[in-house]
Specification:
The protein has 202 residues and is of the alpha/beta class. The chain is 36% helix and 24% strand. The strands form 3 sheets. Strands 6, 7, 8 and 9 form a 4-stranded parallel beta sheet that branches. Strand 6, helix 1 and strand 7 form a beta-alpha-beta unit. The longest helix is centred in the C-terminal third of the chain and has 18 residues.
């Protein structure tokens, strides 16, 4: 809602505290939204700041002195990662360790994953994501990672004698991806899920 500050007798007002906007925002020399003492969502844009309170010193006839004081304990992270090859998974794992270190249940993460990984790297990625879900307050995952198995990985998967039914479905999906390029992405996604299921059952 639009607030028409020019309709208020601002010369008679020392400080105007506004509410219902969750980020800290100055809307005039004497008017501020203090925001919320904790972030309550993933930040949208660099100008959105929360997790603090305002310390305001007022003096009659003068503009107030406003100082922000950090109060938030939770950290909200918005991160995007592109896999160019399987080695990038180790780099992502290193980023996780450097970002969260020994913190537990104090962080929320929106993670967008793209690019492509092999079968074994896909399994290790799933393990890393499970560790993150156990360690963080929330993981919001946007998963757009394609499957790009090596010939050795694919041969071993479709020829898995210990799991003949899964191997037969894997062969069917691999053949479908090869013979129907327009549906290859969907078939590879199903192949990835099948591989993860096999490893959970092992």
């Amino acid at each position: 809602n639009h607030i028409a500050l020019d309709r208020l007798p601002m010369e008679e007002i020392d400080y105007l505290a506004l509410g219902d906007w969750h980020g800290t925002k100055e809307v005039g020399p004497k008017a501020w939204y203090p925001g919320t003492p904790e972030y309550d969502r993933f930040p949208k844009g660099e100008g959105y700041v929360a997790g603090q309170v305002l310390i305001v010193k007022v003096e009659r006839g003068k503009n107030p002195t406003v100082t922000a004081q950090r109060t938030g304990h939770l950290s909200w992270h918005d991160h995007e990662w592109e896999f160019h090859d399987d080695r990038d998974l180790e780099r992502l794992s290193q980023w996780v360790q450097e970002t969260f270190r020994t913190r537990t249940q104090q962080d929320l993460l929106k993670l967008r994953l793209g690019g492509a990984l092999g079968l074994e790297a896909t399994r290790r990625l799933e393990e890393l994501l499970e560790q993150l879900r156990a360690r963080l307050l929330r993981v919001k995952l946007i998963q757009d990672t394609a499957l790009a198995p090596t010939e050795e990985e694919l041969t071993a998967f479709v020829g898995d004698s210990a799991n003949p039914l899964i191997a037969r479905v894997a062969r069917s999906l691999a053949t479908h991806a090869r013979e129907h390029p327009e549906e290859a992405g969907r078939a590879r996604m199903a192949l990835r899920e099948l591989y993860l299921i096999r490893n959970r059952l092992s």
